[in-house]
Amino acid sequence: MKKLFLLLLCGIFSMALTAQTKTVVYGNLGVDNVNISVLDTQHGTVSNDQGQYALVLSDSNKRINLHYSCIGYQDTVVGITPKQLERDSINISFRMRKHAYALNEVSILAERPHFEGDRNIIMDFEVYDGIICMLQGNGNKYRMLLADVDLRVFDTLFLSKHIKPVRLLKDCMGNCQLMGSDSVYQIDLQDKTKPYLATERNHYNAVMGDCLFLTDQHLYLRRTVMNGFSTMFYRIDVATQQKQPLFVDDGSEEFKEFIDEMNFDAANRPKYGPSHEDWERFTRIAWFRDSSAHLALMRKKLVYFDHDNNQIRQYDQNLNELKSCPINYPLKSDWKPQILQDPAKNKFYTFISYWLHEIDINTGETFPKAKLDVDMYSKVALWNRHLYILRRQHTSTGKLRSYVERVDLF
User: Fold this and answer.
1) Could you tell me how far CA 174 lies from the centroid of its own chain?
2) How confident is residue 59, by pLDDT bands cut at 50, 70 and 90?
3) What are 267-316's pLDDT values in tens digits?
4) Are the CB atoms for 254 and 229 separated by under 8 Å?
5) Which residues does 34 contact at the CB level (< 8 Å), separation at least 6?
């Protein structure tokens, strides 16, 4: 590898001597996969497994700033003057310094690891293949913090001023998507030098909004109808683009009852009673439920939570049913219509009363894992038997406090 690097460097030197308009910056950073780029441009390179790099720069009558960045290390900017750019080569070597974050950013809350936003409110978070990404902002500036499974921050992505973020998304391939006020941006968490790929928000929702997951052969989608009371699952063959219906969670009867209730309220609502919108919200929560059917991929098998028929069904990808069992957890009283999946362990969970229960998909039995105040969190996500929770609360002084905490489910 070292010989190849030297040959490459000699070749670059030869070109530089011939043209007399190029300068080669080279050196050793002691770390592989360091991104070296000309600041505010897409021109750059990456250090090899020996920490070595070489970058060709054009002659310039202006100062050039080189940006050195690597996950887990402090960003470094080195300036090169026009006079230095008159040389054939410049050696810039140094040791990348590991990032040192303030210890008070991570503390213990009720003996649980957590990260608190301080002055910057945590707006949203997502888990991307073991990376905890937290969206922070204070109304003027926004950034994304990247943390490990213990909520220790190891890198920061600063957002362009024109981006007004709303929340984080995970697409059907597990990529990080940042939803803004009018656009959706795909973010590469591994390479900060890559630009954000923007898509108009309505177009993204129309194309990707229903997508669940992607396999080698099919794209699986979920579509809700009748104001969310019914769900249809289908898939599209990647090669032929043919659409194939899969499952339907039929909520037509419940939807009809709900409409009848709303019509009765409209005709008989007292003058000083609750508004129609308040009554609709109360009726939906107290008497009716949105469709809670759930389709997931687990070790190349399809797992369908058919709450309409009180069954958990497993299929291969040719839709041959492998196994089914009755659902043995409450469906109406204390059950919260939500299925959560731990993609790292292929486990499934649901809320029953104030407890998060693990579901045995082979028997339908559930087992309590953690007691939570399910009305006090904004978002939850699972990874590797860890439950991550975004909480927001107002202090006695009226200040909004936000933090992400981790609950272990062993």
Assistant:
1) 7
2) low
3) 888 777 788 888 888 887 777 777 789 999 998 999 999 988 889 999 99
4) yes
5) 46, 47, 51, 53, 68, 69, 70, 73, 96
- Which amino acid type is present at position 33? N
How would you write 255-315 as a 3-class SS string?
HHHHHHHHHHHHHHCCCCCCCHHHHHHHHHHHCCCCCCCEEEEECCEEEEEECCCCEEEEE
Q: What is the 3-class SS of 193-247, one letter each residue?
A: CCCCEEEEHHHHHHHHCCEEEECCCEEEEEEEEHHHCEEEEEEEECCCCCEEEEE
Q: Which helix (H) or strand (E) holds 188?
A: none
Q: How far apart are CA 105 and CA 117, in angstroms?
A: 8
- Cβ distance 374 to 351 under 8 Å? yes
CB 362 within 8 A of CB 348: no
Q: What is the CA radius of gyration of the chain?
A: 27
User: Residue 194: which of 53, 46, 72, 65 has the closest Cα?
Assistant: 46
- Residue pair 313/321 in contact (Cβ under 8 Å)? The answer is yes
Q: Which residues lie closer than 8 Å to 195 by C-beta, 6 or more apart?
A: 42
Give residue limits of the domains in the chain: 2-91, 105-209+375-410
Query: Helix axis angle, 252-268 relative to 276-286, nearest 10°?
Result: 150
Ramachandran region, residue 31 (left: φ > 0; alpha: ψ -120 to 50; beta: rest): beta
> Token pair for residue 270?
């007292």
The residue type found at 60 is S
The answer to whether the CB of 340 falls within 8 A of the CB of 348 is yes
Secondary structure tally for the chain: helices H, strands E:
4, 32
User: Residue 34: beta bridge partners?
Assistant: none
pLDDT tens for each residue of 7-28: 333 343 344 344 446 788 999 9
H helices present in 1-130, as ranges: 2-19
**In the CATH scheme, what is the code of domain 2-91?**
2.60.40
Q: Taking the alpha carbons of 42, 164, 144, 221 in that order, is the dihedral positive or negative?
A: negative
231, 249 Cβ separation under 8 angstroms: yes
Both tokens of residue 63? 């100062």
Gap between the terminal Cα atoms of the chain: 44
Cβ contacts of 333 within 8 Å, gap of 6 or more:
none
Q: Coil, strand or helix: which one is 100? A: coil
